[in-house]
Amino acid sequence: VTLTDASQLTSTTYDYVIVGAGNAGLVLANRLTEDANTTVLVLEAGVSDENVIPVIAPFLGPSVTPDTPWDWNYTTTAQPGLDNRTYPYPRGRLLGGSSSANYMIHQYGTNEDWDRMANVSADAGWAWSNMKQYIERHEKFILPTNGQNVSSEYIASLHSYTGELDVSLPVWTQATDARVVATTQQLAEFPYNQDISGINNDMLGIGWAQSSMVNGTRASSSTSYLASANDRPNLTVLINAMVTKLLPIGTPAGVRSFRNVQFSDARTFSVTPSFQVQATKEVILAAGAVGTPQILQLSGIGASEDLAPLDIPVLVNSPQVGKNLQDHPLLPNIFNVAGNSSLDHILRDPAQLGAAIAQWETNRTGFISNNVVNNIGFARLNSTVLEQFTDPAAGPTTPHFEIIFANFWLDPIVTLPSNGSYLTILTALVTPTSRGSITIQSTNPFVAPLINPNMLDTLFDITTMVESVKAIKRFAAAPAWGDYITSAFGSLAGTSDAALEEHARQHTTTVFHPTSTASMAAQDALDGVVNPDLTVKGTSGLRIVDLSVFPFVPSCHPMGPVYILAERAADLIKAAS
Ligand SMILES: Cc1cc2nc3c(=O)[nH]c(=O)nc-3n(C[C@H](O)[C@H](O)[C@H](O)COP(=O)(O)OP(=O)(O)OC[C@H]3O[C@@H](n4cnc5c(N)ncnc54)[C@H](O)[C@@H]3O)c2cc1C
């Protein structure tokens, strides 16, 4: 059952209390309540996702954030690597968390991404050979129902058709899709990849985006994992519940037990009145890469240099809490194009856009029923550039950068100009070496923490961004684009490395993939925030299950990795109980 007010709770004690009804939290809510004797309470600060059109309609996904009631509406600190700019840092604040607010591209990463996590944590259970089994439980691959032939857009034998989350292929053709595919035949540098999910251990090349959607509707952890478990009497989800602190029970020698959770009504933006619930087995933090370190620090679990200025007693000295933040930098590269086949003229005309939304509301067809992106690709740096660096990729088949195609103006920061037609070829750095931090700046949980992704801080990162721009310029020079692209827009027109570096520093923001702020390390390692079984070092009764535990950001869109991480975490938690 989903409740909206703390007064509706019928108990203050549950076997498990999960903090955050997000991407990972709702996987656990489902799996842990499969046993009818296990009681679970999920506390979610955000609101319901029910009947929220921008959340449901795939193409409207980018309007769910920033600066909305469904977003935490964070802003970064000034970024020295980005000409000291700040920019919005969206995180879903509703049922489903960021899986209800994201752009729905669904992948798993490379086998090397997972094998590195196994090596770093000294737990072979995180290796791809073990993790791939969770795809069967997680994924429900569904072919588009509009009759189009998609046999060349995915590899049928790789996928699962029996899991919880609907995953599908594009249902509406962007006018440039054929040109993207034709380029893969014209330029050897950009081969065609028939299945870009990573399940075949290969994300290199250009292919068709797989998305968490079906029949013109978003699929999130809420519409899948929660929907199929919400009528279980042993599951309670409370929205509007802002967790403000974890409280230790007693002071047992050695480790402290954090089984008490304090929360308040998120609608009041006040810590009073405050409520408390207790977990008899475990508290599980699934508040995401920003929320989780914030709650730890508010609870006195963190680095003393972060807690001392706020007079927060250090209950568990855990120096890496909030450190190591990694994220994928995203750079919109925009071209002017000929004719009217880009979507821009529809997107800037309220009447045409309104008609498209009405069509979607009537029968779930048209471009609103489709994701904003149909084609994505991944590539490695060429060896001449790479040999200047220690390769930060998880292995030799893991990409360094991503290429994303949209047949319209897609810049998260700069709004569509009042005229012109555009093609956007975004590039994203998927093996960044810059590391940033999340640090609370107040003991008031309603004050956002300082978010410093430290974008483009290293020579490798800026060099790779520049190389990615050069690569898409080569892509755009293929014969397939001869009668379409007319010129590079704005600072993309620069030709020298220095000019492209300035283009990158001026326009880069984020693909919204923060990770690693409560990093996993080996059981006996002194660094790291969690053990390989995701229990928090130096505590008992406390685990973290969300993207913050990945020691390295996966080289892909990370929602798939979060889902299967949570599937394995559920197994670990059940085994420990
Ligand atoms: C705009 C956007 C676009 C993206 N696009 C893609 C994409 O196309 N493909 C992809 O793979 N990934 C994408 N991502 C990233 C992906 O969605 C996230 O990395 C992933 O969902 C994170 O999962 P999580 O479980 O770690 O956290 P979340 O899903 O963010 O869950 C955390 C939950 O905890 C709640 N919470 C936080 N603090 C508290 C508190 N104090 N008390 C109570 N509740 C709290 C939050 O409200 C939220 O519901 C995107 C993300 C965004 C924001």
From TrEMBL:
<keyword id="KW-0274">FAD</keyword>
<dbReference type="Pfam" id="PF05199">
    <property type="entry name" value="GMC_oxred_C"/>
</dbReference>
<comment type="similarity">
    <text>Belongs to the GMC oxidoreductase family.</text>
</comment>
<keyword id="KW-0285">Flavoprotein</keyword>
<dbReference type="GO" id="GO:0033718">
    <property type="term" value="F:pyranose dehydrogenase (acceptor) activity"/>
</dbReference>
<dbReference type="InterPro" id="IPR036188">
    <property type="entry name" value="FAD/NAD-bd_sf"/>
</dbReference>
<dbReference type="GO" id="GO:0005576">
    <property type="term" value="C:extracellular region"/>
</dbReference>
<dbReference type="InterPro" id="IPR000172">
    <property type="entry name" value="GMC_OxRdtase_N"/>
</dbReference>
<feature type="active site" description="Proton acceptor">
    <location>
        <position position="557"/>
    </location>
</feature>
<dbReference type="InterPro" id="IPR007867">
    <property type="entry name" value="GMC_OxRtase_C"/>
</dbReference>
<dbReference type="InterPro" id="IPR012132">
    <property type="entry name" value="GMC_OxRdtase"/>
</dbReference>
<feature type="active site" description="Proton donor">
    <location>
        <position position="513"/>
    </location>
</feature>
<feature type="domain" description="Glucose-methanol-choline oxidoreductase N-terminal">
    <location>
        <begin position="288"/>
        <end position="302"/>
    </location>
</feature>
<feature type="binding site">
    <location>
        <position position="243"/>
    </location>
    <ligand>
        <name>FAD</name>
    </ligand>
</feature>
<keyword id="KW-0964">Secreted</keyword>
<dbReference type="GO" id="GO:0050660">
    <property type="term" value="F:flavin adenine dinucleotide binding"/>
</dbReference>
<comment type="subunit">
    <text>Monomer.</text>
</comment>
<comment type="function">
    <text>Catalyzes the single-oxidation or sequential double oxidation reaction of carbohydrates primarily at carbon-2 and/or carbon-3 with the concomitant reduction of the flavin. Accepts only a narrow range of electron acceptors such as substituted benzoquinones and complexed metal ions and reacts extremely slowly with O(2) as acceptor.</text>
</comment>
<keyword id="KW-0732">Signal</keyword>
<protein>
    <recommendedName>
        <fullName>pyranose dehydrogenase (acceptor)</fullName>
        <ecNumber>1.1.99.29</ecNumber>
    </recommendedName>
</protein>
<dbReference type="Pfam" id="PF00732">
    <property type="entry name" value="GMC_oxred_N"/>
</dbReference>
